Amino acid sequence: MNILTFDVEEWFHLLENASTRTEKEWNTYPVRIHENMDRIFDILERHGQKATFFVLGWIARRYPEVIRKICDKGYDIGFHTTYHELVHQLTPEAFRRGLAEGLDYFQQATGKKVLFFRAPGFSLTERCSWAFDVLAEMGIAYDSSVFPTGHAHGGYPSFPSHKPTLVKTNHGEIMEFPISSAQVAGKSFVFSGGGYFRLFPYPIIKYYTNKADYVTSYLHPRDLDARQPMIKGLPLKRRFKSYVGLKTAARKVEKWLRDFEFTDIRTAASLIDWSQTPVLDLRN
Fold it and tell me: Does domain 2-281 have CATH number 3.20.20.370?
């Protein structure tokens, strides 16, 4: 089972970087979201491909036409927090307020209820597992926020599975689609999105996709934007991680979609017998 998802952010939405941390800084950068989304739509339409889009509430508020276009084209829309916050840095109250604020932007723009969520940086961790309860309380039915091993911005090593898992909360059940990883020399890495996808030659991506029986991808509009400006002041390592492979990433996605069958989260969930999946029971 291969699932295609996109985290819809602007090109400057880098986590934990001082020069791009707040909305004040964001307002100083040029807008690239429209042309970058059109690039994604063109690729998906050429391949007749479904996908799930996790959109920042900031994008929904500032550019509601973007999420209306996603919706009009028949793709599922999820929420990606309003201001690109790491969930483990928030209190339950702040997380709940942010969800309510952001989900209202989507409701105003599309008239449809949002059922999908993904935390930036896969930052739904063991120490903020309370977030599942808040998500269920707010009507979220599908989540893809868990990285079931260590991760730079989060990680949930005790999560019961690297495959779809049913999370039981005090407010209902959530179908969790963890981010898939590969093991090399005892270390986990993600080949299906972000910097690793841009860095690795396509034959490596193809090899690990063939090897896996479950892949959830996570691509960003900026990953396919070879003409985006360089953000000033980035440390050398961060500059490499953010800009490596931009020129070839779109071609890799096209090859990926030709070589493998992908679907969206809603369709994948309908094909799973949830009575047979692993369970994380968080009920009191």
Answer: yes
Report the sign of the C-alpha dihedral through residues 226, 27, 80, 15, in that order: positive
pLDDT tens string 195-237: 889 999 999 999 999 999 999 999 999 999 999 999 888 888 8
Using CA atoms, how far apart are residues 266 and 59, in angstroms rounded to an integer?
22
Q: Which of 99, 27, 100, 105 is nearest to 66 (CA)?
A: 105
CA separation (Å) from 47 to 40, 42, 67, 76, 268? 11, 9, 21, 17, 18
The sign one gets for the Cα dihedral 180, 184, 186, 187 is negative
Spatial distance between the Cα atoms of 2 and 227, rounded to a whole number of angstroms: 29
Q: Give, in order, the Cα–Cα distances in Å from 38 to each of 114, 153, 241.
A: 22, 29, 24
How remote is the C-alpha of 265 from its chain's centroid? Answer: 11
pLDDT value at residue 208: 94
| pLDDT for res 151 | 60
Q: How far apart are the first and last CA of the chain?
A: 33
pLDDT digits (tens, 9 = 90+) for 84-123: 899 999 999 999 999 999 999 999 999 889 999 999 988 8
> Has this prediction a pTM greater than 0.90?
yes
Rounded CA-CA distance 18/147 in Å is: 24
Tell me: pLDDT of 240 over 90: no
Tokens standing for residue 167: 């999370």
